[in-house]
Structures are given as structure tokens and as C-alpha cells.
Amino acid sequence: VSSGPHRIERDTIIECGTLVIGSGAGGATVAARLAEAGHDVVIVEEGPYVDHAGVPDQVPEGMSRLWRGGGLTVALGRTPIAYAEGRCVGGGTEINSAIMQRAPETLLEDWARTYQITDYGPTQLRSYYDRSAAIVNASLTPPPLGAASDILQDAGARLGWKISPLERAQRYCVGTNLCSIGCPTGGKQSMTATQIPAALARGARLIAECNVRRLVLKGSRVTRVDAIARAWDGLRHRVRFRPRDVFVCAGAVHTPALLRRNGVRRNVGNTLRLHPTLKVVARFAREINAQRSRLPLNAITEFMPDQRLGGSVFLPGYFGMSVAEDWENRRWLLEEWRNCGMYYAMARGSGTGTVRSVPGLAEPLVSYALSPVDWNNLGLGVARLGQAMFAAGATHVYPSIVGHPGWTSAETCTEFADRPLPASRTNLMTIHLFSSCPPGEDLSRCATNSFGRVHGTENLFLADASQVPEAPGVNPQLTIMAMALRNAEAFLAGVH
Amino acid sequence: MLPRAVTESFLGWDVGLSVAERERVHRDVVAFVRAEIALAPAHIRFVLRVLAGTFAAWIILTRLAGIDVAAAIAAWSHLTGPPGGMLIRLLRSLALLAFGEHPLVRARLGEPSVTALQSDRRLARMKEIA
Question: How far apart are CA A367 and CA A336, in angstroms?
């Protein structure tokens, strides 16, 4: 049984049954399921292997090592949107907060109709959701949750808004609050704690720091995959894979980028969706010491699925970043950092974006155009978030808008409820991207069939966030895992 | 030159560091900002470098005109359109991240180092499991 990645020490040719490109929630799930069924599986991952014992012991180092582009990745557009992706074994599951939610049933039904997805809907997905939730032990955290969560709870109670506790992928999580640089205890049930070891225990091979450059298609079959792998000594070696089947699971940005780079372009990378998110810094009259709370583990769900209001992990450095967004107006908060918390309004996102490979550039160009509905939801969302903060005792609330003087009362914070946010001054971010290669039988809009096989190919499959048909309005990891499990089992059953 | 000039001008979070400590923190912050820019996707890096070059020229001109660096940075950070003020806001964000998470700064803030926090929590989880 291998406990970690294989290393490539020379130029190599590897024959295998199924090559899985990417090791996040989708790739790791496919690999574990196929390995369980006795398949010969090789997983390749561009980033490093870092398990919980080896996570960085500084937050900046964690960002540099585990986040794609050091976290400096941006969807271009009239209003650029900063986004974060994991680039390590386990992908985004190693740097996210491990919130586990199911997509609303109405959306699943709507997607099945719109995209003509066979055998898809709340009933059909239930067992995949259940099994995925069991794999990561999706569960509620027992109280006390800490001040950062209590603020949302209190706000919801005062305003009569629905508050929902958030399940997390966790097992004996002790609330270290360092999820974003890799869980140091193993409490977070990320892919390196669950599906990766499960796959390796059943004979799968894992090659980390191996960057796939080329898919060679002959007719409708992928016959070869070329990659460059980094050896222990830092030297790079060519790896030529000769797989029977290929699952591309590189995420909503890099899956379409890899496909397009290799000539697979039909309905690929044209429909990127995301959850545009606007943060606020709230200052309270009392010390809340959010850095000592668990990350906020409840959310205001009254306005879902179009808007969700929640809280962010609070670390001194992350707080500093928020202040830096508008130094002149916010620097005074630095002296009162113990009184501050960071919260967000997230919109479901109905705009679309594109992913394009550009010759000579290793990273694809990502763009996204917010729709009028997105702007409306963000404006309403941040107004409601402001109201929630003041209801919970905030004295000042600063939305992430450059040059905004902040709000000091619930009356003033509704300014964007009925007029547009300033597009050129609004700082948006997201950690949820999806939908760039939607599944279904509608050939006019779908990149793959209903079970992830790329249209027009015989042995090229997808299983990652790119397959989630549209923005779900909730954290997507559980949906990604459920759909990947479904695609893997369709592959095993030969119904693809 | 740019990150150093910027960090010296905007690390206005007074946590009571000694001169020697502040020098060390500055050095580490600058190293982090430079490393982050090097990690950024090539097209982002290109934009940042063009902006950085323009900004550096602006700094030189303002110094010649007798305006201090902080005032020049403030002028840039108020530019709203992308990529106008983006450069300063981004660099400042990165620098304040590295500053706020620096072990010396965390200690001055009364917070355990991340290393200590990780050790403590690992022990706590082992006890929880036991």
C-alpha cells in the first residue's frame, strides 16, 4: 500500500487502465471508486502532496504552496473577480472550509430539464449525496461555535430570518481555524484524509507535481497523454501515459483549458459560472475575538438560493488584507481588530464567463460578466448583511467598495438595495467556480453526455466542478463529489 | 525597489515592534510580496510589472517634486478603475497579510504563532480521539 505519491526519476512511459487528471473532490472520488472496483488507476496532480502532518506553519507560505498562482488569480471583466483555487493533491478541498451542502432540489430538477440530463434529479442523486456525505463524515459542529457564529445567529433571531447550521467534512475537528492553508490536525476530511488514501490503499498510483500538457486524440479516442513531472531533485522529466480511458478532473478552469488546448472545444469553456461574493468588515462595540472562534458555522439562508449571507475565517493577516482594500477609510480598524469580524454576501451567479487557452501562456485567461440579476442580488445581499450586522450590535460596517466611507446604522446600509453597486469600485471575489463543461444530451449547449463522456469521444470523461450545470447557490463540494461518483459508476456499469 | 518602498510606506499597523524586529518583519514581508508576484499567472504578472514600472517612475517623479512616497501611494490607491488602484491595493493586501501573520507580529498581538497553534491543536485532537 502506497501512503504517498510516486516520484518520476527519469523520462517514463506509463501504461494504465484509467488516468485521472486532477485530485480534487471530483478526481479523488473517481479514483477511489474505480480503484475500489479493481481498476488500474493512475492519478496525476499538478501541485504538491502535502498531508496534515506536513502543512506549512505560516499562512503566507501556505498560500504560496497550496493556492494556484499564490492566490493571485483573477477572472477578468468590467469588474474583475479574484478567485482562489487549490493547487495541490486534494485540490480545493485542502484549502476550503469544508462546508457540505446539497444543491436545492428545484435547481436539480431545472438542470435535468434544461440540459436534458438523463437519470438526473433529486431522487436519482440522493444516494450519491448520501454516500459522499458519509465518506467525508459531513456533520454539524457541536456548540459552542464562538462569537463569529453567534453574531449571525443573533442577527437572524432579531430580524426573524432563517438561520441554518452548516455541516462540515470533519472528524474530531478541534477548530484550528487554519483550513485555508491545509488542516494541520487531519480533522478536516479533505481528499488527502479520505479519498486519496482510499484509492492508494486499493492500488491506485499517485503522481504529484506532474503537469499534463497534451492529450493526443486519434479519431475519437485519447491514445496518449504527455506530461512533465518534477523529480525529488527538482529536475523535470517527460512522462508519456498510454491509458485506456481518461478522466479529466482539473476543475472548472483547468479542465476546459486543457481540453481547448487540445482541440476539444464544443461547448467547452463557454459557460463558466461562479458565486460572486462581496465581503464586509464589521466593527462591534465589544471585543469578539473572531480569531479565536471557529470559522462561522451558520449562515443566513432566508434569501437562498439567490443570496446567502455568511461569515469568513478571521486571522490577523486576513483582516489586514480587508483593511488594505480601502486604507484611508479603514486603517483605524487595525487598532480595534479584536472588535471586528468579516462576513460576506454571496450571490448565486447567473452571469457567464469563459475560459480560454492562449498559446504561450501556461495559465488560461478567465473572464466573467456579471448579469444585471447578479448585481441586483449583490446589492440586496450586502444591504441585508449590513442590517444583520447592525442587528447583532455592529457600530460600523464597511462593504468591499473602494472609497466607501462605511455605514454606521441600519438605515444607511440599504443604499444599494435599490440602486446599483459601483461596478468599477466594487471588490468581488469567489472560491466557487463551476459549469464550464455542462453535461447533458442537448448538443447545442452540453460538453459531455449525461454521465461525463465528452461528446464525440469514446474514452474521455469529465468529473469535477466543470460538470455542475449551473451555480448551485451553496458550497459545491458535495455536489461535485456526488456527480463524480455518479459518473464513475456509470463508467463502471458501461452505461456511458 | 517597489515592494520595499510600498511596505515601508504603508505598514501602519503599530503593534509595538522594536526597530530590529520591524526591520526583520519588513524583510520577510518584502520577500513574500516578491514571491507572490513571481507565482502569479503570466498575464497577471505582466500587468503587475507594467503597473509597477509606471508606479516606480511616478515615485521618482514625485520625489523629484518633493512629494513623499506615502502621498504618492495614497494618490494611486484612490484610483478606482481596474487596473488603476489595483496595484497598490493588491501589494498592500499581500504585505498586510504577511505582516499580520508574521510570528513577531502575532506575538505582539497576543496571539500564538501558527506553529504553536498547530501543535496545540494536534494535541487537542489526539485527546479528543482518545
Answer: 37
